[in-house]
């Protein structure tokens, strides 16, 4: 960490700052310039509160040189993490597709969709049982019943299941869930991150709507600090001023994260665009960007099917998409099983 | 709610959509135009999923006419809500200041600060016991000990206390806390909102970094739907591209919220700017914008005091600020007790 | 256009609004609801000031149904526009790559780079002669000399040239330039748009850093309203809170624009990310998203080459990239000549 | 400027970088750390291209210590600039209000509004003659006729006039205009900035919708580098995700700019919010934040008056606002003449 101190500051203030840093167990290298003095902090600066220091009157600027994350950092773990679950691999040179309905609605629905996505090449089943909804008056999911139906679909198809956890108090219901999803709105629900980190299960961590990639890595670090290193990162669109798509899918996140971390990165083209016909181009774009996989919404609703829309694809559209995704993934050197 | 349907859609698709809406218990008024057809939905549209409908292929646009919140809506509750706690009032024509340290650090610290802010005119004491930190390696607060010290400071000074709740599992510790704060990162932690709504206590709800004002009102609605109508809204800066301040304080939120809701609105000039010397101008600006109060960080740390900085004010700076805030609040017709 | 009027408004105010709309030559259909009244405006609403109407006290909301652009609108021109320049085609089922240095620096530099990019498959040469720089003290380009050097490189290689125009007063110097580029900072310099529209030349219009896709189309409309329909749109990253990349490349813009307009859309992966090693993944992602081409920075600077960085690729990196881009473009059904 | 270089870089690359910096006329201080090496650049770094250096592969981070602006920098010019025009002062301890219609529409309109705003205490008259409009089909202003009408209103009332310049080619028409306004969309139209800098007239420079405060100061620097130091900065709202107001007024810009520059700063509450009833609270908030003045839209349109809305105030509303603004400005120690 580098701290630039104004030369206008009093000696006493300067000494206080240096002493304070040393109390944190760090060494300080001082180099005086004409208008300012640069302090180089040597040692483990991950505990230093950058905001606090940068807000001091005598401080011109503060800059981290070392990243504040360790377990998630590629510098210390150069080899790609590969998460294995039920015979499926996520990360490394694998390309993996998770698919399923937005919400679990009934036994026939989830089993039918599960069979369809398995046939098309998906190796994990997603489905919402607990749904985070902006409005308290909106449908909040089938909850424990939904979890039960997902487990039936798993039994029927062999597909491991991914579903979202909203609260520590529901954790008991998730003991047979294969991958626990932490949604965008809970990316900085640190108490929840600590608890899922204790389960040792694979965690699918979605980027918050207004969170930087560094914050995403810090949230992964929360989980990994509890000993759970099976974290899968997911980019699902960020909030910007643009309104033609629901959110702005930040695909540059893929190469940026790949450089910083060894964790797998998958893309959610369904939620980010919010529009079914954009799912295919953005899925192919994700493959080009170097992603390790996709999580895609597939529905099976005859009424919705007639309207032919929504952010979900129907099984035929999904199957057609998988053909194109597979061909492109092979072209960029990924292993696919479809 | 208004739905604009493309005239290019097939009759069958159109009928499906209309039928679907009627199944939700709503009436539909159809008016055909040259290029598109407008459906007017009559009835309680708060349960209609706008995202789903707008993503249908045959739909051009969807627009809500009614706001999706009710309890928080000024249309149905025109009179300002005034929250009362320990003899202090927030809302209506009162101007109220909450002050205290960022974190509770020790008994002497919190009591000393409490006395200082009370003397200057603050009527509520804030202080963090559970701290949400981006890094798992950063200080996470004194936790239950911190709550205990806040209660001692309350005993000593009579000031009611405000402190942040991070998890449902800590709720037992908050039974003597006067106002429960829900932080920006948990604004859409819906399970937490439901639980605090059941306490019946006053809730200080901070706007999320990337949340719209309508989403803030929907989160208030979560609390109010549980029967707890004592919600205080707090603007604390949003995330933008600007870097000279930590966040961008959105003061237009004050008149915008005042128009939409009867709930009190206070401003946090400390966290939003992140810079002590900007706290005074932004506090005075808040008064001008019509806010009902302020929540301000005041510290009592001799070392930090020597550096004379951070986002916290020292007691002298706070006292000086209060004089100016009081004079300006009177000028705009607010009642102040300082 | 749909206007939702509050039922609380006085009859006189309502009549004034309706009369005012009729004076604009539009028909008004009125449908009264319980809490509000919906006005449907029929006719050419492109001249109606949406901002003005939505700010009226009696108006709840305003929504356009028709897009405010015509010449750029796919509804009225369903067939893809293909821009032809010097034997090269941009748009339709072609995939086209524009390449060259950020700034023209010397005759040998521009000619050497031109030869290298031509060999690798680029069919247009880019190079900055007039450079928009944030600082008045930074290098502003070789100006007219730079244009001359670009023309020499064209003579030498046969590649048509693309270069940026900053001011109407430089227009004379651009008479032999093949494609005039309007940069992001000038996307809403409407006087400049009008003037380039009068040249009849192909115009490469870059999206502004904080401009919506609809605003981009409105700026294209400015050029097309002058009779020039050869507009090429370019996504080059938008400004967000993320800092790991210089800007956030919005690739969802490709399918979103393709739906709304018949104009070709190309991507600039160099400026958007600002980092050389991200150019390849984002180029491949652009192909996947369905873009019509790329504009890529290629340099030829031995010193910079040693450092092996910057947002520019060296000729070897560019050549390697082109092989991958070509293979992927063919996979998605595009014609490539490399 | 500080450059952090990775220790993994080759000696040859490192030497190249150091040599390159020295070629720019700068001294380099090297301090080696365990994981990285810090280069301190001494000398005039305003010409160094930070983007270029930060994109080099061997570079971890780059940080400016000195601001890249000089003429606008308070460090070198600690005393507030006071712009004087026609007996009115802007800056220092003065509080000044500019008012007038959005567009000049007719002789009677502009003269009537001019008289009304003068009576209420405004000392400068604003009015648009050349209007930047998103749509080519929208009214683009009365142009030269509009300038003529503004000059008549000036003759009639003595109020100096402020109006927006869109293009260098219109500059001749502006020779009798007192203050030339550069609009938000042209904040980085650098050719236009250079030309207005040559006029020596006071320039009202509006912040771009997505421009940082540092970029605003760099654009002021463009004007000042031409010898014109009478620049007035104007905050008018930035683009964010929030939709309840047209833009997000960034009032923290006032103390942030006051610290960095000696130039006067005024606020435009009309355009930023886009809603007439928010003009009063945001005007008072601007006074609290420490602004040097306001620019407010006042109309005189009987039809619009009946609807009682739009972002413009009518003369009565403006007069009432001025009373409150004056009282508050005095309270914060500003001189007002109303």
CATH superfamily name of the largest domain in chain A?
Answer: Aldolase class I
Distance between the termini of chain A: 47 Å
Count of DSSP strands of chain A: 14
Largest beta sheet of chain A: what is the strand line-up? 7-8-9-10-11-12-13-14
For the largest beta-sheet of chain A, the strand count, sense and barrel status come to: 8 strands, parallel, barrel
Largest interface: A-B, 60 and 60 residues
| Helix content range of chain A | 25-40%
Shape verdict of chain A: elongated
Q: Report the uncertain regions of chain A.
A: 305-309
What does this structure look like?
The structure is a homotetramer of 338-residue chains. Chain A is α/β, with parallel strands linked by helices. Chain A folds into 2 domains: 2-63, Alpha-Beta Plaits (2-Layer Sandwich); 83-331, TIM Barrel (Alpha-Beta Barrel), CATH 3.20.20. Chain A is 35% helix and 18% strand. The first copy, chain A, has 11 helices and 14 strands. The first copy, chain A, has helices at residues 11-23, 50-54, 107-120, 144-157, 190-199, 213-225, 253-260, 269-273, 276-289, 302-307, 315-331, and strands spanning 2-6, 27-32, 36-42, 59-63, 83-85, 88-90, 96-100, 124-126, 161-164, 179-182, 203-206, 231-235, 265-267, 293-297. In chain A, strands 7-8-9-10-11-12-13-14 form an 8-stranded parallel barrel, surrounded by 6 helices. A 4-stranded antiparallel sheet of chain A has the order 2-3-1-4. A two-stranded antiparallel sheet of chain A has the order 5-6. In chain A, helix 5 (190-199) links the parallel strand 10 (179-182) and strand 11 (203-206). In chain A, helix 3 (107-120) packs across helix 4, helix 5 (190-199) packs across helix 6 and helix 9 (276-289) runs parallel beside helix 11 (315-331). The radius of gyration of chain A is 23 Å and the shape is elongated. Mean pLDDT of chain A is 91; it is low at 305-309. At the A-B interface, helix 1, helix 2, helix 5, helix 6 and helix 10 of A face helix 1, helix 2, helix 5, helix 6 and helix 10 of B.
